[in-house]
């Protein structure tokens, strides 16, 4: 058992990231009768109590949520499919993903500068330089298409890469497309739809199922009412 694993009587710990995921998770948590005692955007606290003394929330970076859950520092968390793909490539298994919560919806896309003939470049077998935060998902996508790429990992401001000649294309999350348009980029290929999943530590599910299962069931009921 992980040295971080909670005792049977410790509060259930839910790992969330600030921003959209936190905001869209709150109504689902509310369906279980649980409310966060503080707004993480207004508080510097990283551990937030809730209206249920048996449940607490920890605030971590989105990319770190699966790590906290896998190693037992959190019993469960909410993470996007994009984050989970990248995490699995580095850390393997250890996470149970029982529910697609149908929140945080967007899509992972290939985007290029307006005017760049992506389809022609692919047909001609050009070797493309692609900047992305989502290296594993991009690698799998281009490998399946037989497209030769050099992947450049960036952690932010992906749209800048083609504008300054660092890359021919980017792979990034797209919601409304407004950021692409503002930077004269266009989405040319959808890789996959993205939404957020409830993830659960497998050891905790075995040792604390009686406490975790009602919360998992509440998430399942609430998410089933979300638009498909």
From TrEMBL:
<protein>
    <recommendedName>
        <fullName>ATP phosphoribosyltransferase</fullName>
        <ecNumber>2.4.2.17</ecNumber>
    </recommendedName>
</protein>
<dbReference type="GO" id="GO:0016757">
    <property type="term" value="F:glycosyltransferase activity"/>
</dbReference>
<feature type="domain" description="ATP phosphoribosyltransferase catalytic">
    <location>
        <begin position="61"/>
        <end position="219"/>
    </location>
</feature>
<comment type="similarity">
    <text>Belongs to the ATP phosphoribosyltransferase family. Short subfamily.</text>
</comment>
<keyword id="KW-0067">ATP-binding</keyword>
<keyword id="KW-0028">Amino-acid biosynthesis</keyword>
<dbReference type="InterPro" id="IPR024893">
    <property type="entry name" value="ATP_PRibTrfase_HisG_short"/>
</dbReference>
<keyword id="KW-0328">Glycosyltransferase</keyword>
<comment type="pathway">
    <text>Amino-acid biosynthesis; L-histidine biosynthesis; L-histidine from 5-phospho-alpha-D-ribose 1-diphosphate: step 1/9.</text>
</comment>
<dbReference type="InterPro" id="IPR001348">
    <property type="entry name" value="ATP_PRibTrfase_HisG"/>
</dbReference>
<comment type="function">
    <text>Catalyzes the condensation of ATP and 5-phosphoribose 1-diphosphate to form N'-(5'-phosphoribosyl)-ATP (PR-ATP). Has a crucial role in the pathway because the rate of histidine biosynthesis seems to be controlled primarily by regulation of HisG enzymatic activity.</text>
</comment>
<keyword id="KW-0547">Nucleotide-binding</keyword>
<keyword id="KW-0368">Histidine biosynthesis</keyword>
<dbReference type="InterPro" id="IPR018198">
    <property type="entry name" value="ATP_PRibTrfase_CS"/>
</dbReference>
<dbReference type="Pfam" id="PF01634">
    <property type="entry name" value="HisG"/>
</dbReference>
<comment type="subunit">
    <text>Heteromultimer composed of HisG and HisZ subunits.</text>
</comment>
<keyword id="KW-0963">Cytoplasm</keyword>
<keyword id="KW-0808">Transferase</keyword>
<dbReference type="InterPro" id="IPR013820">
    <property type="entry name" value="ATP_PRibTrfase_cat"/>
</dbReference>
């Amino acid at each position: 058992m992980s040295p971080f694993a909670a005792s049977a009587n410790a509060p259930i710990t839910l790992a969330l990231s600030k921003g959209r995921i936190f905001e869209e998770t709150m109504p689902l948590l509310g369906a279980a009768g649980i409310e966060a005692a503080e707004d993480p955007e207004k508080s510097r606290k990283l551990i937030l109590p809730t209206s249920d003394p048996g449940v607490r929330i920890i605030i971590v970076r989105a990319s770190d949520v699966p790590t906290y859950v896998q190693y037992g520092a959190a019993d469960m968390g909410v993470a996007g499919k994009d984050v989970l793909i990248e995490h699995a490539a580095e850390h393997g298994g250890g996470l149970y993903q029982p529910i697609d919560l149908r929140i945080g919806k967007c899509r992972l896309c290939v985007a290029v500068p307006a005017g760049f003939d992506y389809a022609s470049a692919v047909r001609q077998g050009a070797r493309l330089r692609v900047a992305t935060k989502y290296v594993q998902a991009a690698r799998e996508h281009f490998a399946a298409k037989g497209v030769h790429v050099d992947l450049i990992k960036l952690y932010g401001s992906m749209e800048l890469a083609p504008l300054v000649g660092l890359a021919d294309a980017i792979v990034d999350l797209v919601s409304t497309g407004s950021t692409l348009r503002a930077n004269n980029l266009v989405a040319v290929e959808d890789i996959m739809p993205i939404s957020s999943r409830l993830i659960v530590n497998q050891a905790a599910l075995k040792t604390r199922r009686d406490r975790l299962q009602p919360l998992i069931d509440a998430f399942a009921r609430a998410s089933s009412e979300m638009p498909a």
